[in-house]
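Lecture 7 notes: from sequence to structure.
We start with the chain below.
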Amino acid sequence: MQTSSKMAKELILFEDVIGLGIVGDIVRVADGYARNYLLPKKLAGPVSDETRQRLATRRAVREQELKEELAAAEKLATKVEKTTAKVMVRTSSEGRLYGSVKIADVIKAASEAKLELDKGQILIDQPMRELGDFEVGVRLHRDVTARLKVSVIEEEEE
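Predicted structure tokens for the same chain:
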């Protein structure tokens, strides 16, 4: 079976496109994706030597930014790995939790431990429904995921 040239288009990216590439990348995409999304939004255009030269500087700058973002994420990962977030929960008289520990609880506990995270970064594998120590994933960068220790502790009665 032969593929027609109308099935895929070769374009050069003018901007970063998540899941596709960064400025200056030459990509092959479906004709409809190019026609309906990339070209009208001016995210990509036809490949030419002039376009490659024009985007070479922007690409070099973007590659440097990506290296810096990765280095910052790796540094933060070291801090996350050394931190224990303490989540205080109310329990029944038998010591059972009312519900489970939520992402918002983990974010609040991390904030109290001087880590600023957002809900899109927290990766909870399984619900935390009991007292004890757990680990949750924290996605800091496309290539960097750290493990945050979370201690679920019974709240003191006042």
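Points to note: The two ends are 75 Å apart (CA to CA). The longest strand covers residues 144-154.
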